[in-house]
Design brief:
heterotrimer, A: alpha/beta, Rossmann fold, six-stranded mixed β-sheet, 8 helices, B: mainly alpha, MetI-like fold
């Protein structure tokens, strides 16, 4: 990595790295009788501009924490994180969009107002808002529901509202934290196709956190496999899929190989994680 | 019959049963204890017509004490509730205290209030306010605490200024539960003012009732009770409707 | 005790100390308020002298009677109403309005029917508490996961057994809330009634002391009521926490 280029502060990042993590660690401090939790790291990651990168790992391994650090929602306890050459620390940088696991659609606003929310607060003029929101809603298939309230929609559609809300801000890096976790398997696969369309349309770099191996294998250019807590990258699997792909890729021969390789690592780690959570429940509080 | 019509019919049935029970009680307990439903309604009519000057005076007394107490309950309650809800530590420390205050028979504090404010309007307002402030605060505190973290995270990713986060995310998200607290506070403030009037006042609807029983004036007692009952029920009905509308969105 | 518990204790002690200082230096006039230390000594002397014993016993008896009857009746009513959804839907508006109307206004009516005795007082406490328990029971039964009923049928359990062995523990958190409310409301109902109009009892004693300008007795008794209520609440809370932690993992 060319250190000189990153010191340009806003200039071209070396070797097309859109975002970087170096030695990022996250430790949650001790709370009332519990030991401090070493949730993540140290982790190194180079995100290439425009790539689709997934992170898989057993529960509790720190995948969500990784995303939060990258998004600037949480500062790392140690190590450095940068986006487009500028450091990220505790503040969400301009150009980064995040879609969360839980339904974050505002129930007091219509679908349209939800999508327009960020633009209105940023002071974008109304003609532009009209254009972008209309565009995003049409793209996400929500045009017919623009006057509905989220409570009237299904879980999958509510997530699409959240995605539209992020889309209109034209982010260059989109972070998705298990956005389809609450949905049934079939809807999830279809949403995967939607994300691919999104990716091709916007040309953004995408980081997807998921626990579904097939989803990661099917959607990504690269898949990072995380170990059990504290999470570290065990392997980076390149899928070498063509850019114009969709969920039918599951019939390719390579798909089975990728999934097998992912499970090869994850099986052991998942058993470790299962043991960890079992011990936590039975043991209760640790001696502080 | 549609289910809504059936439900309406059932409700009327219960209402009719209550009135029938009232009538039966009247026959059992006698004229010195109660007035029948018909008699009571007739006397209510009198209070609004021939005796309207006297009734109006007392009603106005209660009304203005109530409104002032309500304003205080809402302002102080919201201030405390939001502060405790926003600041984690204060909330954790303060919540059991608030809950303990909720179960305390605040009637026990009435003599202190009388000592401090003397007999009069300000004492009544204080009675009402101490009853209403606690539920308003508790509900407001919980409303702020229960805001889904996902909303705040979203606000952060939109890079909103703090005042924007409050106005566009926190207030709409917390509003339903805050309104529930305002509704409960409304009823309790009314209760406080009325009990205060029953206990230590020479004016107002509460006083009318206690005075009536001391004079064995059963008609006035029942009629005023019925008026208060119906007024409170209607007010609560309206607030409940607003409450439901807000909660339906969520 | 946890760190938060210590902070809370410190805050409360600081407030009491503040009151003590303010009264002693005269910022708060002595005729309005007693320093907390003197309230305590007055209480100890009063209890030792035994003059208040009869009132205390009477009030606690009334509260106990109201509490037991409202818990049992409230639970029974709740179970019965839950069983018949049509009845429940018809009663819902009445439940929603019940605590909105100042039914203390009917206390004089009760006195007119039953004469000035303990019965109207117990009835007021009962009336205040019973519906809270009923509503809490219904809410609790709502929350019993349907799958438990299916498990019961798979084990071929009878109705009563299912109710006691499955529904009761599953609904426990809500039932506990109902119990806590019942205790609070029984106290409030009884003491408020004694304040308004009663021959004896703690509420009456406090009002009497106030009218007699006997601040020492008045504050001593007020302190007593507060101590009893707070202690009971803490005991209930502690029991609830232990039970719920074991049964519901919280």
């Amino acid at each position: 990595m060319d250190a000189g280029a990153s010191r340009n502060g806003g200039g071209r990042v070396a070797a097309g790295h859109h975002a970087e993590l170096r030695g990022v660690t996250r430790v949650y401090p001790a709370v009332a009788g519990y030991r401090p939790v070493h949730a993540l790291g140290p982790v190194d990651l180079d995100l290439r501009r425009g790539e689709f990168f997934s992170v898989v790992g057993p529960s509790g391994c720190g995948k969500s924490t990784l995303l939060k650090v990258l998004a600037g929602l949480q500062p790392p306890s140690a190590g450095k994180c940068s986006f487009e050459g500028k450091p990220v620390h505790g503040q969400v940088p301009e150009g980064v969009g995040v879609v969360f696991q839980e339904d974050a659609s505002f129930p007091w606003l219509t679908v349209w107002d939800n999508a327009a929310f960020g633009l209105r607060r940023a002071g974008v003029d109304s003609a532009e808002i009209e254009r972008r929101v209309g565009d995003a809603l049409a793209f996400m298939g929500l045009k017919d529901f623009q006057r509905a309230y989220p409570a009237q929609l299904s879980g999958g559609m509510r997530q699409r509202v959240c995605i539209a809300r992020t889309l209109v801000l034209q982010p260059r890096l989109i972070l998705l934290d298990e956005p389809f976790g609450a949905l049934d398997a079939q809807t999830r696969l279809l949403m995967g196709d939607e994300v691919l369309r999104l990716w091709r349309r916007t040309g953004a770099t995408i980081l997807l956190i998921t626990h579904a191996l097939d989803e990661a294998a099917m959607l990504s250019d690269r898949v990072g496999v995380m170990s059990a807590r504290p999470g570290r990258f065990l392997d980076l699997v390149e899928t070498k899929w063509p850019k114009e792909r969709d969920s039918t890729i599951v019939s390719e021969a390579g798909f089975g190989e990728v999934t097998a390789r992912l499970w090869h690592h994850l099986r052991g780690e998942s058993m470790k994680a299962l043991g960890q959570s079992g011990a936590a429940a039975a043991g209760g509080r640790a001696e502080a | 019959m549609t289910s809504a019509a059936k439900r309406g019919f059932d409700i009327l049935l219960v209402l009719a049963a209550l009135v029938a029970g009232w009538q039966a009680l009247y026959h059992v307990a006698g004229e010195t204890a109660l007035t029948s439903p018909a008699q009571t309604v007739a006397y209510v009519g009198e209070l609004f017509t021939t005796k309207s000057a006297m009734f109006g005076r007392h009603a106005w007394e209660t009304g203005r004490a109530f409104l002032m107490a309500l304003g205080l309950s809402y302002l102080i309650g919201l201030a405390i509730g939001v502060a405790l809800g926003a600041h984690r530590l204060s909330g954790a420390v303060g919540e059991p205290i608030l809950v303990a205050l909720y179960s305390l028979p605040k009637v026990t504090l009435y003599p202190v209030i009388l000592l401090v404010f003397g007999l009069g309007l300000s004492a009544k307002v204080a009675f009402g306010a101490i009853h209403g402030v606690v539920p308003v605060a508790i509900f407001a505190m919980n409303a702020i605490r229960h805001i889904k973290p996902a909303y705040l995270k979203t606000a952060k990713t939109m890079r909103l200024a703090p005042h924007q986060v409050v106005a566009t995310v926190i207030v709409p998200a917390a509003l339903p539960e805050i309104v529930t607290g305002l509704r409960v506070g409304f009823s309790l403030t009314l209760l406080g003012v009325i009990i205060g009037e029953m206990f230590a006042s020479k004016q107002g609807l509460g006083f009318m009732v206690i005075n009536a029983i001391n004079l064995a004036d059963v008609e006035t007692m029942m009629a005023v009770a019925l008026i208060l009952f119906v007024a409170a029920a209607i007010a609560n009905g309206i607030l409940l409707w607003i409450d439901h509308r807000l909660h339906k969105r969520v | 005790m946890s760190r938060i518990g210590w902070i809370r204790l410190a805050v409360l002690l600081a407030l009491v100390a503040l009151l003590e200082i303010l009264v002693r230096i005269g910022s708060i006039p002595y005729k309005t308020m007693l320093p907390p230390s003197e309230m305590l000594t007055a209480l100890v002397r009063l209890l030792a002298a035994g003059t208040a014993t009869r009132d205390i016993v009477q009030t606690l008896t009334c509260v106990g009677a109201a509490l037991v009857s409202s818990v049992v009746a409230g639970f029974g009513l709740g179970v019965a109403i839950h069983r018949f959804p049509r009845v429940r839907r018809a009663l819902e508006p009445f439940f929603a309005t019940y605590y909105a109307v100042p039914f203390f206004i009917f206390y004089p009516v009760l006195i007119a029917i039953f004469d000035l005795s303990l019965l109207p007082i117990i009835l007021m406490g009962f009336a205040f508490a019973v519906i809270a328990m009923c509503i809490a029971t219904i809410n609790g039964l709502d929350r019993v996961p349907r799958v438990l009923g299916k498990v019961a049928r798979m084990h071929r359990m009878r109705e009563f057994e299912t109710a006691v062995r499955m529904k009761l523990p599953a609904a426990a958190p809500h039932l506990f809330t109902g119990l806590k409310l019942c205790v609070a409301y029984s106290f409030i109902g009884v003491i408020a009634s004694e304040f308004i109009l009663a021959p004896s009892g703690l509420g009456h004693a406090i009002a009497y002391a106030y009218n007699d300008f006997d601040n020492r007795t008045m504050y001593a008794l007020m302190l007593f009521v507060m101590i009893v209520v707070v202690t009971l609440n803490m005991l209930l809370h502690g029991w609830e926490q232990r039970l719920l932690k074991r049964w519901h993992g919280r």
